[in-house]
Amino acid sequence: MELNSILIFICASILNVNCYDIIQRQNDAINASYLEEVLDAQECDRQVKLIRGNALMLLQFADSGLRTPRGILTGNTVDLGNYHQCLGIYHQLEEMHIQGKYCSIEVPFDQKFHLPRPQDLKGLPFNPSSLRVDNATIKRMEKYDVMRRLMRAVGGNFDRFDLEARSTPENPLTNMVFRLSVCVPKPCTTEQAITSLLFNISQIGFKYTDHYCRLPNDKPWVTADFVAVSLFAVLGFLTLMSTCYDIGGRFILKKDVKQLSLLYRSFSVYTNGEILTTFKSVPGTIQSLDGIRTLAMLWVILGHTYGTEPFAANPMDTYSWMFSAKALWLTAATMTVDTFFTMSGVLLVYTTAGKMNQMTFVKNLHWFYLNRFMRVTPMLGVVALLQASFYNQIVDGPYWVTVADHVKRCRDNWLMTMLHVQNFMRPETMCVTHSWYIAIDFQLYVISPVILFWVFSGKSRTAWSSLLGGLLVVLIISTGYCFYMDLPGGVIVPR
Description:
Elements: H1 2-22, H2 32-37, H3 41-52, H4 55-63, H5 83-87, E1 90-93, E2 96-108, H6 118-121, H7 135-154, E3 177-185, H8 190-197, H9 201-204, E4 209-214, H10 223-252, H11 269-276, H12 287-305, H13 315-322, H14 328-331, H15 335-352, H16 358-363, H17 365-388, H18 400-418, H19 436-447, H20 449-455, H21 460-485
Helix pairs in contact: 1-18, 3-8, 7-13, 12-15, 17-18, 17-19, 20-21
């Protein structure tokens, strides 16, 4: 009866979240309503008129805003301007509060400018004619973009990822855009500011779309922030008191460790640090797995350092390097995922085989699942809470909207992560994107009794047949799925 209730709750929760996600919502990690409330066309005209008459102030807005990306011929299409300089602009003149607002715009490649005479653009801080790229560079950039989206999908980021878009389109200009930054007065839209301070948008035919705008203090505190602060404050207090009790009893009162309360020392940094840094050789352990695990972890960390940057300043060079022999040790880092899955399976069989028979295993199956769930979920829940809360308040920058998007994901889809189904239920909005591995590991653990039941038979031939049969089934299903979906043989495949 209890199991049925749990299953009903899980199904209802999944349906509820999916129905709720159908509604299009704004990212509440950034206060969008505040950005809309400050818009005032008349006030913008007044401030622009004042700025145009003040050379220093005009230079501040121009210097921290729109400019041509450096390194276009090597594939760079991004210019971030100067985020903190723009938001740091603040002047109080003639009863006006002039404040900078940082905005990001996307300018498509596929457009033709109706440019005036060159002398008419002379002296402007930005010349639209500089946004020109030759077709050969564009085609290579499109290939690089496809490869990068595939790599980001492997890391759990499925933004704008489409299996049908793994190859370059017929028109390479279709999806390519310049991502530029512009610093405008607080009450202005980007269109009004660019037209007033730089050039006439409609006259030149300058087409673009607003990506986002940012203002100081535009990240509101929400209930999740206060819950997280309270929880971590309590944990911090318990850790401090437990550590003081532990160190005081050991070194000040000179008591034996066995005389100290185990409960009071449970949060001690000293005791837990000692446990974590003390390695004992236990009979029956497979010590070689420790070395494999260490090397795989270092490989994963190193590989991620090359894939976490928001953009590459020289993607053409990156694209060429990725297919060279020098990059092989890095591009092959994805095999560490298979390494960890293999080790998990080996340890599962190794630690359980021979300790129980088939019927004992079936009777204790609920404890088998509960033990795994309690080992994995609490720490994952802490990470999800941190990402859904004041993680958004830590620092700021021009690409902080990416972090804000991950914050929103956890506020909306945290339950899917806690239930370990986030890789199936709307993976494009996954909370804690790198937790896809934990979800798959847990799901493999759930279906493992199908194999373990025969391993516990006590018959060597039956056990090996079940293990090899399971491996064969997985290989057939995986190969068939890749063939049916026409998936590439690897993440990085030259086109």
